[in-house]
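quick one, 448 residues, struct below
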Amino acid sequence: MEQATAQAQSINIVTEVPGPKSRALAERSKAALADALTLVHPVYIDHAHGATVTDVDGNTYVDWIGGVGVMNVGHTHEVVTDAIVEQAKKFTHTDYTIVPYEPYVRLCERLNASVAGIIDGPVKSALFNTGAETVENAVKIARVATRKQGVICFTGAFHGRSLMAMTLTSKVHPYAANFGPYAPEVYRAPFANPLEHGGDEDAAAAWALDELEKMTKTHFAAESIAALVVEPIQGEGGFIVPPKAFLAGLRAFCDRHGIVFVVDEVQSGMGRTGTLWASEQLGVKPDLLLSAKSIAAGIPLGAVIGKAEIMDAVPDSGIGGTYPGNPVACQAAHAVLDAFEGGLLEQGAKLGARLKSEFDALADEDPGIAESRGLGPMRALVFWKPGTTEPDPARVDAVQAHAQQKGLLMHKAGVGGNCIRVLVPLVITDAQLEESLAILREAVEATR
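---
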């Protein structure tokens, strides 16, 4: 973790939570915003730095949410903010495909280089705005490249909220209910979750791959499938790390049937697991790799990075848009990559080891914690009702609420809402980390 600096802040709660100014803003929001825009933590933020956020009432919290996996390099990272300001003074938009600019080209070059050893052969990239857009466009690219239509996805998956991405997403409420009709030619296979097999990774992988093979006889013709889309570690699904054998089996399945293997690293990528890509640690060999979220530290940007022969299958102007690869976003992404090249990945690996140690201890002590899981600093606790395999979302809500009052902001995950996940900025200081871990332990013990 980053050592304490003059700018580093600790938790400081000076009013009730939420405070009076946040409550007033919440009332204004009710009148002005669509009701669907519900709030997890109704504390309105005024400013943020590193791994802390400070609300309009002057309360400072340690942020374990990081904009839902967007702030891996930390809030207002100096190199990033300087790059944003410098580019904004030059120009903010032209539309790359109409009047191009160098930062877009250089960013694609750097992204291509970053997947050497992950994607075989020549690589090319295209930029978009969001994770959902990368998913939509990956499917489009795969369909053109294969001249096929079908798409395989997985239970527990989250790929976004646009039409195809929403259809691929496994959690019906709140993401998909009543928003149909959904995209056709989509088939959902089981994801390999070792917890569901008593921790036996080999059994989990063998079962899931066997079920996928059975689906070629009962649900779809394998020769009709254009793309198989999978997260190497499920994000919204609860930070489920599948066995390496499962991911290798998916690669082999795609090879046998001429399917484009699409790996969604929107949440697991950009240093979240202690390496730039989770695929590096899991031995994943995609045809297309997707990135977004932390790629530009809060400025909307996404990327599809893939085998050149597949990327080049799309005809002129077949992909793109008005805003993708905005120059400000590109320069922010360059600064993010600079930060990772400057030692942030090593900080992340150290953070992951400390989180694993504490989370493993909590899981050993508490009969209501089914599992501590994750990879590096992408870490989660899974809560079941003691003595059962029934998810316990009520306890997760109680832990989260207790921590909020003490100055730690967390966000749950899992199809059953029974996981506490950590997406804390990798720049968190040792003091901030230990302070927040103490609050987590207190919240877990208080709700036991």
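The chain has 13 helices and 15 strands.
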